[in-house]
Amino acid sequence: MNLYEHTIVARQDATTSQIKQLTEKYSKIIEEFDGSIIQTQNWGLLNLSYIIKKNKKGNYIHFKIKGTGKIIKELEQNEIIDKNLLRYMSVKVKKFDLETNYFSNSETTKRESDKKSNV
Amino acid sequence: MYRKKKTNNKKNRQSNFAKLSIFQPNKYKFKKSCPLSLNGAPVIDYKNIKLLKKYISDNGKILPSRITSICQKKQRELSISIKRARNLALI
After folding, report:
1. Does the global pTM surpass 0.90?
2. How far apart are CA A42 and CA A101, in angstroms?
3. Which of A92, B13, B33, B69 gets the highest tally of CB atoms within 10 A of its CB?
4. How far apart are CA B53 and CA B47, in angstroms?
5. Contact A49/B90, CB-based, under 8 Å?
6. Three-state DSSP class for B39?
7. A49 and B45: CB-CB below 8 Å?
8. ipTM for the assembly
9. Chain A contact for B56, CB < 8 A?
10. pLDDT digits over A1-40, tens only?
Protein backbone atom coordinates (compact mmCIF):
# COMPACT_ATOMS: atom_id res chain seq x y z
CA MET A 1 0.00 0.00 0.00
CA ASN A 2 1.29 3.43 -0.93
CA LEU A 3 0.36 6.96 0.03
CA TYR A 4 -0.68 9.37 -2.71
CA GLU A 5 -1.69 13.00 -2.94
CA HIS A 6 -4.06 13.66 -5.79
CA THR A 7 -5.16 17.12 -6.96
CA ILE A 8 -7.82 18.02 -9.51
CA VAL A 9 -8.49 21.43 -11.08
CA ALA A 10 -12.07 21.89 -12.27
CA ARG A 11 -13.42 24.60 -14.59
CA GLN A 12 -14.20 28.05 -13.19
CA ASP A 13 -17.92 27.96 -14.05
CA ALA A 14 -18.57 24.64 -12.31
CA THR A 15 -21.33 24.98 -9.72
CA THR A 16 -21.00 23.78 -6.14
CA SER A 17 -23.24 20.79 -6.88
CA GLN A 18 -21.07 19.85 -9.87
CA ILE A 19 -17.97 19.97 -7.68
CA LYS A 20 -19.70 17.72 -5.16
CA GLN A 21 -20.55 15.29 -7.95
CA LEU A 22 -16.92 15.26 -9.09
CA THR A 23 -15.62 14.51 -5.60
CA GLU A 24 -18.22 11.74 -5.20
CA LYS A 25 -17.43 10.28 -8.61
CA TYR A 26 -13.71 10.01 -7.94
CA SER A 27 -14.05 8.89 -4.33
CA LYS A 28 -16.28 6.05 -5.59
CA ILE A 29 -13.56 4.94 -7.99
CA ILE A 30 -11.06 4.92 -5.16
CA GLU A 31 -13.32 2.77 -3.00
CA GLU A 32 -13.96 0.34 -5.84
CA PHE A 33 -10.26 -0.45 -6.05
CA ASP A 34 -9.90 -1.09 -2.29
CA GLY A 35 -8.31 2.24 -1.51
CA SER A 36 -9.15 4.48 1.40
CA ILE A 37 -9.47 8.27 1.41
CA ILE A 38 -7.70 9.69 4.41
CA GLN A 39 -8.56 13.32 3.76
CA THR A 40 -10.24 15.48 1.16
CA GLN A 41 -9.63 19.19 0.97
CA ASN A 42 -11.58 21.71 -1.06
CA TRP A 43 -9.27 24.63 -1.73
CA GLY A 44 -12.04 26.56 -3.47
CA LEU A 45 -11.80 28.96 -6.40
CA LEU A 46 -8.19 30.07 -6.91
CA ASN A 47 -6.62 32.32 -9.52
CA LEU A 48 -4.65 30.40 -12.13
CA SER A 49 -1.25 31.89 -12.87
CA TYR A 50 -1.78 31.37 -16.60
CA ILE A 51 -4.88 30.80 -18.74
CA ILE A 52 -5.84 27.15 -19.31
CA LYS A 53 -8.56 26.46 -21.91
CA LYS A 54 -9.87 30.05 -21.58
CA ASN A 55 -10.17 29.75 -17.80
CA LYS A 56 -8.69 32.38 -15.50
CA LYS A 57 -9.71 30.63 -12.28
CA GLY A 58 -10.03 27.04 -11.18
CA ASN A 59 -11.70 24.95 -8.49
CA TYR A 60 -9.12 22.88 -6.67
CA ILE A 61 -9.94 19.56 -4.99
CA HIS A 62 -7.24 17.68 -3.10
CA PHE A 63 -7.34 13.99 -2.06
CA LYS A 64 -5.05 12.11 0.25
CA ILE A 65 -5.29 8.43 -0.73
CA LYS A 66 -3.94 5.19 0.70
CA GLY A 67 -3.89 2.33 -1.79
CA THR A 68 -2.17 0.65 -4.70
CA GLY A 69 -0.99 2.10 -7.98
CA LYS A 70 -4.01 0.66 -9.80
CA ILE A 71 -6.18 3.39 -8.30
CA ILE A 72 -4.06 6.17 -9.76
CA LYS A 73 -4.08 4.52 -13.19
CA GLU A 74 -7.87 4.20 -13.10
CA LEU A 75 -8.36 7.75 -11.83
CA GLU A 76 -6.17 9.27 -14.52
CA GLN A 77 -7.84 7.29 -17.28
CA ASN A 78 -11.18 8.78 -16.22
CA GLU A 79 -9.80 12.27 -15.77
CA ILE A 80 -8.32 12.51 -19.28
CA ILE A 81 -11.82 12.17 -20.74
CA ASP A 82 -13.54 14.43 -18.21
CA LYS A 83 -14.45 17.78 -19.80
CA ASN A 84 -15.05 19.51 -16.48
CA LEU A 85 -11.41 19.18 -15.49
CA LEU A 86 -8.46 21.35 -16.51
CA ARG A 87 -5.58 19.58 -14.78
CA TYR A 88 -4.85 16.64 -12.52
CA MET A 89 -1.73 15.61 -10.67
CA SER A 90 -0.84 12.71 -8.40
CA VAL A 91 2.23 12.62 -6.19
CA LYS A 92 3.55 9.68 -4.20
CA VAL A 93 4.61 10.69 -0.69
CA LYS A 94 6.21 8.95 2.24
CA LYS A 95 4.27 10.74 4.96
CA PHE A 96 1.04 12.73 5.06
CA ASP A 97 1.01 16.20 6.53
CA LEU A 98 -2.60 16.24 7.73
CA GLU A 99 -2.49 19.32 9.93
CA THR A 100 -1.42 22.13 7.64
CA ASN A 101 -3.79 23.33 4.95
CA TYR A 102 -1.95 26.00 2.99
CA PHE A 103 -5.01 27.33 1.21
CA SER A 104 -7.84 27.48 3.74
CA ASN A 105 -5.63 29.32 6.23
CA SER A 106 -4.83 32.16 3.86
CA GLU A 107 -8.52 32.58 3.02
CA THR A 108 -9.63 32.78 6.61
CA THR A 109 -6.93 35.30 7.48
CA LYS A 110 -7.94 37.36 4.46
CA ARG A 111 -11.58 37.32 5.53
CA GLU A 112 -10.65 38.32 9.03
CA SER A 113 -8.54 41.21 7.78
CA ASP A 114 -11.42 42.28 5.51
CA LYS A 115 -13.83 42.24 8.43
CA LYS A 116 -11.44 44.33 10.49
CA SER A 117 -11.05 46.87 7.70
CA ASN A 118 -14.84 47.05 7.33
CA VAL A 119 -15.33 47.73 11.03
CA MET B 1 53.64 32.74 7.02
CA TYR B 2 50.60 34.95 7.16
CA ARG B 3 49.97 34.63 3.45
CA LYS B 4 50.09 30.86 3.52
CA LYS B 5 47.48 30.66 6.25
CA LYS B 6 45.11 32.92 4.38
CA THR B 7 45.19 30.88 1.19
CA ASN B 8 44.54 27.66 3.06
CA ASN B 9 41.49 29.08 4.75
CA LYS B 10 40.07 30.28 1.49
CA LYS B 11 40.35 26.87 -0.11
CA ASN B 12 38.60 25.17 2.74
CA ARG B 13 35.76 27.62 2.99
CA GLN B 14 35.09 28.07 -0.70
CA SER B 15 31.96 25.91 -0.77
CA ASN B 16 30.31 28.00 1.93
CA PHE B 17 30.66 31.28 0.06
CA ALA B 18 27.96 32.71 -2.15
CA LYS B 19 28.46 34.82 -5.23
CA LEU B 20 25.98 37.24 -6.72
CA SER B 21 27.42 37.01 -10.22
CA ILE B 22 29.97 34.90 -12.02
CA PHE B 23 32.13 37.95 -12.66
CA GLN B 24 32.33 38.90 -9.01
CA PRO B 25 35.94 38.62 -7.83
CA ASN B 26 36.62 36.10 -5.09
CA LYS B 27 37.53 38.86 -2.63
CA TYR B 28 33.94 40.00 -2.31
CA LYS B 29 32.27 36.66 -1.70
CA PHE B 30 30.27 36.50 1.51
CA LYS B 31 29.40 33.55 3.68
CA LYS B 32 25.87 32.31 4.18
CA SER B 33 24.46 29.03 5.44
CA CYS B 34 21.56 27.25 3.76
CA PRO B 35 18.30 28.81 5.03
CA LEU B 36 16.27 25.63 4.43
CA SER B 37 18.42 23.16 6.37
CA LEU B 38 18.37 24.99 9.69
CA ASN B 39 16.51 23.61 12.68
CA GLY B 40 12.82 24.45 12.41
CA ALA B 41 13.08 25.39 8.75
CA PRO B 42 9.88 25.11 6.68
CA VAL B 43 9.24 21.88 4.75
CA ILE B 44 9.56 22.19 0.97
CA ASP B 45 6.22 21.32 -0.57
CA TYR B 46 4.49 22.09 -3.86
CA LYS B 47 1.49 23.43 -1.92
CA ASN B 48 3.52 25.95 0.06
CA ILE B 49 3.41 28.75 -2.51
CA LYS B 50 4.60 31.47 -0.14
CA LEU B 51 7.90 29.64 0.33
CA LEU B 52 8.33 28.76 -3.35
CA LYS B 53 7.71 32.34 -4.49
CA LYS B 54 10.79 33.46 -2.56
CA TYR B 55 12.98 31.31 -4.80
CA ILE B 56 11.70 32.27 -8.24
CA SER B 57 12.51 35.44 -10.18
CA ASP B 58 9.93 37.99 -11.34
CA ASN B 59 9.72 36.19 -14.67
CA GLY B 60 8.99 32.88 -12.92
CA LYS B 61 12.41 31.33 -13.37
CA ILE B 62 14.04 29.27 -10.64
CA LEU B 63 16.84 31.24 -8.94
CA PRO B 64 20.26 29.55 -8.95
CA SER B 65 21.58 28.26 -5.63
CA ARG B 66 24.63 30.47 -6.21
CA ILE B 67 22.42 33.46 -5.35
CA THR B 68 20.12 31.96 -2.73
CA SER B 69 22.85 29.87 -1.05
CA ILE B 70 20.62 26.80 -0.75
CA CYS B 71 22.46 23.48 -0.44
CA GLN B 72 22.37 21.05 -3.37
CA LYS B 73 20.00 18.56 -1.75
CA LYS B 74 17.40 21.19 -0.92
CA GLN B 75 17.80 22.87 -4.31
CA ARG B 76 16.85 19.59 -5.99
CA GLU B 77 13.73 19.26 -3.82
CA LEU B 78 12.86 22.91 -4.50
CA SER B 79 13.14 22.65 -8.26
CA ILE B 80 10.92 19.56 -8.30
CA SER B 81 8.25 21.17 -6.14
CA ILE B 82 8.35 24.41 -8.15
CA LYS B 83 7.75 22.42 -11.34
CA ARG B 84 4.83 20.62 -9.70
CA ALA B 85 3.28 23.91 -8.64
CA ARG B 86 3.73 25.27 -12.17
CA ASN B 87 1.87 22.30 -13.60
CA LEU B 88 -1.11 23.06 -11.34
CA ALA B 89 -0.91 26.77 -12.30
CA LEU B 90 -0.29 27.77 -8.69
CA ILE B 91 2.86 29.77 -9.52
Report:
1. no
2. 10
3. B69
4. 11
5. yes
6. coil
7. no
8. 0.81
9. no
10. 899 999 999 999 999 999 999 999 999 999 999 999 999 9
